[in-house]
Amino acid sequence: MTSIRFAALAMFTGILAGTGLVSGQAAVAQDFHVDTNVEAITPRETKQMSQSVTLFHAGKTYDFIQDMGELVVFDPAHDQFTLLNTQQRRATHVHIDEINRMEQMGRQALAAHVKTLRASGKPEAQELVDALLFQFHPQFQQKIIQTDRGPLIDLNSNYFHYQVLGATPPTPAHGTAYLNYADWIIRLNYVLNPGKTLPEQRIKLDAALRQAQLIPVEVTFGDPNSLQVRARHRIYWDLSDRDRELIRQWDSFLMRSDLKQVSFQDYQRSVLASVAHHK
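Structure (tokenized):
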């Protein structure tokens, strides 16, 4: 899932249902493992973008991209994210209240841009206005198709299209943990990448998954006529000894004396530089 955060989301941040405060809604701790492979798809080629591992353990989520050395730890019990760059040995913490504040600032800036476009009176501006307004209140035509591979949720609109192959989690708590994280990581992605698409599109998808009591195993999104992104998730409903060792290593890394604690804004600048480097 982190791979979408730094790679696919650099291009289509608007992919990952309104949530309220996290601490009161955290699921009973469920331990499981998600491998994610992200591809960029054009009419001419399919290109590997990134791979990541996401571990759910003891109520927390550990989301790691190995080639970038980027780790995100989501701790819903304390309403915060910890972000760690293992290569640069830099870390920061951000509370969900701060994420909400920065998200609201982004909304206000986008609303002001819409107002400016409308005031221009240019006929060609209306098409862009309509596309921007869709970000605030995305409306999809939704259907669920039964396929040989499992249920497929199709969300379609004039501006964005999702096709999501779903699977039933072993317990409702597993689905709650996964989709709660998906709701919040898309918000973090948005504030890490200023100017990108508002999170509502992915949140709308998460709401559809909740309603169908599914979690995604394959997500394809974007414009079929130009560029799409496909995220494939391989899910293991338990943690291996290797997974538990990784968590111990990451927790130990976060306690290192040589780890530099920086502000969220400083960390954000390094993320944007890293995304530009990996494009």
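The CA atoms of residues 16 and 182 lie 6 Å apart. The first helix runs from residue 2 to 12.
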